[in-house]
Predict the 3D structure of the following.
Amino acid sequence: MHNDSDGATPSRVYGGVAAEERRSRRRGALLDAALDLLAEGGAPAVTKRAVCVKARLNDRYFYEQFTDRDALLSALVEEHTALGIAAVVTATHDAAPDIDSQVRAAADASLGFLLADPRRPALLLNAHSTEALQDARLATQHAIARAMSAVGRELLAEPADPLDADMTAYSVVSGTLELVAAWMRGEFDTTREHLTDLIASLLLSIDNRGALPVTGAKPGTA
């Protein structure tokens, strides 16, 4: 190994794979193993040893990425929340420019994201006994609600009081997640299409006293 002319040290390469990419792969393997274990046996099944065995990595690689199990669980929620938001944003941008189409596309993409991987509901919708997962779940709800509230204030001609907007958005986000969780448990006998329409209608019903959904629309386009 040698130093480049600017003094930077290049990453070691083994088998054509750079060190940074290998670390990324190990992180992905650990997160995927944790999600498997969580879906199979709940939070108690996600231990450092079980994750390492399932990922076929030794302990030192676990600590290369995470300080402890709670850090792993928090990272897992953050990663899948980011993936879900990205899926919703993409679907919204691909929809017709009217707000009705964008909101329905967002609702459908949200359900599609959860259904695409049967392990995701266990992570993002289920109640958990561990403090780390509960804290991460609440943080996700608040982050989505803040985004909804911010866009609502941007789009509305007469913006709502910021606190009212934040509270309204949080109630919609948390309520919608609980509704979807109940539907996935079989508590409501309806189709995905009908549930999508219902969620879209709920989002569109929010008026100037609250917030608007995140649609990616700009003022004057709705």
